[in-house]
Amino acid sequence: MPRFRVVLIEPLHDGNVGAIARAMKNFGLDELVLVRPCAIGEEATKRSMHAIDVLQNAKRVFTDEEALKDVDFVAATSGVSTSNEKRFSRISMTPKEFADKVKDMDGTVALLFGREDFGLDKELIRRCDFLVTVPANPEYTIMNISHAAAVVFYELFASSVIKWEPRKATELETEKLHEYFAMLLDTIDYPRHKRTKTKVMFRRLVARSAPSTWEFHTLMGVLNDTMRKASDGEVPKRRRKKGGRPSKLR
Description:
Layout: E1 3-9, H1 14-26, E2 31-35, H2 42-48, H3 52-56, E3 59-61, H4 64-67, E4 73-77, H5 95-102, E5 108-113, H6 122-126, E6 130-132, H7 145-158, H8 171-187, H9 192-209, H10 213-231, E7 238-240, E8 246-249
Parallel strand pairs: 1-2, 1-5, 2-3, 4-5, 4-6
Antiparallel strand pairs: 7-8
Helix pairs in contact: 1-2, 1-7, 5-7, 8-9, 8-10
C-alpha cells in the first residue's frame, strides 16, 4: 500500500477538521495537512475524540505546493460526477475503484478535499492524477466533507484488509456427503421414484451453499446418527402398501 496524505484545502469549519481527523484514525491514516485553514478550536478538539494526536500533529501550510511537496500521486475529490469526457478534464471514479487502482502502488498519494462551499478549483483538479466521486442520490449529490472523506478512507482501508474465510469442504468431502445422503434415503426407505430427483436437489443445494469443513462434519454427523438410529428402529420407516409403494410413516 502507498502512504496517504490527507490535504484539506481552506477548510471553513473546524468541526469538520476534527471529524476528518477522527475518520482518519478509524481507518489507519495519520498524516494531515491543512492549507490556509480556519482557526482550529474547541469544536475540532471535541469532534476528533481519540484522534486528537492526528489533529495536533496536523501540518499547516499556506500554499498548495507546500501541501503536495514530495508526493508521487495526487487524487482530487469532488461531489460532481464527470461522465462526459469532452466537458471535464478528469473522468471520476468511485472510492472503491480508486482504492483498487492504488493499493499496489509505492510512494505517497495525496488525497485532496476542497472547501465546504465550492470544493476544489478546476485548475487544481487538472493537476491531479485521479478524481474520486462518492456515488450519491442524483437529487442531492453533495455530501458533508467529513462524511465523504470517511467513505474514501474506508474503501482505502478495506482494500488492504485480508478477510478471514473458513476452509471450504473439498470435492472429496462433498462427494462423501452425497454418498451418505443417498445411503440415508435407502435406510429410511424413501420412495424409489423420488430418489433421483431428491439427490439432484440435494446436490444443487450443497453446491449453492459451498459448505465449510466444519459444516461438512456437522452434516455428516447428523446423517450418520440418523442412519444408525433408523437401523436400530428408532427412526420411523415408511410402511408399504400392497403394490409396493410406500405410504405414510409408521
